[in-house]
Amino acid sequence: MMKRRNHNKQSRFSILFPILTILGIGIVVVLSSFYEKSWSHNWNDVSKSIKDSVLVAKNIGYTGGIGPNGRSMEKFAKTRLWIMNNATENELLNLIKYPNGTVKAIGYEGLLRNNDYNKKIDLISKSINDKEYKVYYSAGCEGIELEISQYLIQWFLKIDNKIPPFRPELIVDYGLSESEKEKILTEFHNRKK
């Protein structure tokens, strides 16, 4: 009888072990699927006000004109502009490392707007190779997903010669020479899609 009891305990354990293993693996998979890269972003050297504004703006995307359902999106545009105008160069450089397309675009755009920033060509080249995250741009009921470089070159800088031209009064000069624009466009049009 004694051996039988021992054998029963051993057979229970041999059945229970695989079940608990599978259950444990399932729990790990479920919990890890909810992980976001933004949780581990390094916010050192970023002020609390910039960080808080970024966390508000990150899920909004970019808008032109009226937003979805006829709502005014001016508040969100002002938030993005406030971040660009009030963040330091180092804070904007930190934002282009954030794992979100809207936040990256805010960082890139803020640096390109800065007249004192002198590495604009390198920055745009970096954006051309930055393809992991997209910018969501909406105008009214229409919305499109753009690569960050596509947003910067076609919608912000407005220098792409392969799309219909913008009215001259809408084009702002951000300090790029014609030869620099040509270099950017060549790299942009030859990028891997």
From TrEMBL:
Domain of life per record:
Bacteria
Keywords from UniProt, A to Z, are:
Membrane, Transmembrane, Transmembrane helix
Transmembrane parts of this sequence = 12-35
The name this protein carries in UniProt is Uncharacterized protein
